[in-house]
Design brief:
Number of helices: 4
Strand content: under 5%
CATH architecture: Up-down Bundle
Helix content: over 70%
Shape: rod-shaped
CATH class: Mainly Alpha
Radius of gyration: 37 Å
Distance between the termini: 34 Å
Number of domains: 1
Order of helices and strands: HHHH
Length: about 230
């Protein structure tokens, strides 16, 4: 079937095929690199910042709740005022962390968890206002009872933040696994493509060489026959 084509034409076809194969391999590599880059960017710009800011938010809320308890334990006006100054500072830190986190929310599940936290935190702060009023009056027994009720909302909000941190940590792990899997697949594809290209190249070289040797033998026999005549 291919006998009617010259060796030059066959070599040209083989070289063209190798160029196409190498181009396809390059395009596939670029696609795999894009997948790896997307996963990496997702980790750096979304998951890890979310975990960090959520950690800051959780630390701020825990600190705020601890200061409220210290306010209950303070026995004089100066001690209570000191705790109220600290409360003002840490509620600012809490609000700052919330504003930093809100733009990082990317999924419906994450939004649901944050809304649940916001509801619990608002309920806790509402209870704390009444607790502080009673604490300033040194009505400790009533303040502690009310604080115990308000703390339930605070604990619930903290548990919700823990779930959100876990969600983002799993997201980072999934993105990392995707990048690693894409890298492994890319290596396998590259090696397989290189091996196939080498095999085809060697086969083409052997085929072309054998054809050239055969043609040389035919020409020598023809020349020898002409010489005998």
């Amino acid at each position: 079937m291919f006998a009617k084509y010259s060796i030059r034409s066959k070599i040209t076809v083989v070289v063209a095929f190798l160029l196409v194969a190498m181009s396809a391999m390059g395009a596939l590599n670029i696609r795999q690199m894009y997948t790896i880059n997307s996963a990496t960017v997702d980790i750096v710009n979304n998951w890890l910042p979310s975990v960090r800011v959520l950690g800051e938010l959780r630390a701020a809320t825990i600190t705020y709740r601890a200061i409220v308890r210290s306010h209950l334990l303070a026995t004089d006006e100066a001690g209570k005022q000191l705790q109220e100054d600290l409360l003002a500072k840490w509620i600012t830190n809490t609000d700052k962390a919330r504003k930093a986190y809100e733009p990082l929310i990317t999924s419906a599940e994450e939004r649901t968890l944050y809304d649940e936290f916001s509801t619990s935190w608002a309920e806790y702060l509402g209870g704390v206002k009444e607790v502080l009023v009673l604490s300033r009056k040194n009505e400790d027994k009533e303040a502690r009872v009310l604080h115990a009720k308000a703390s339930l909302a605070g604990v619930k909000g903290d548990e919700t933040l823990q779930k959100d941190v876990l969600l983002n940590s799993k997201g980072a792990d999934a993105a990392g696994s995707q990048a690693a899997e894409s890298f492994d697949n890319d290596i396998k594809i590259v090696l397989s493509s290189l091996l196939l290209t080498i095999i085809i190249g060697i086969g083409a070289a052997v085929f072309s060489g054998s054809r050239r040797v055969r043609w040389n033998q035919i020409h020598r026999r023809a020349d020898a026959g002409a010489g005998q005549r």
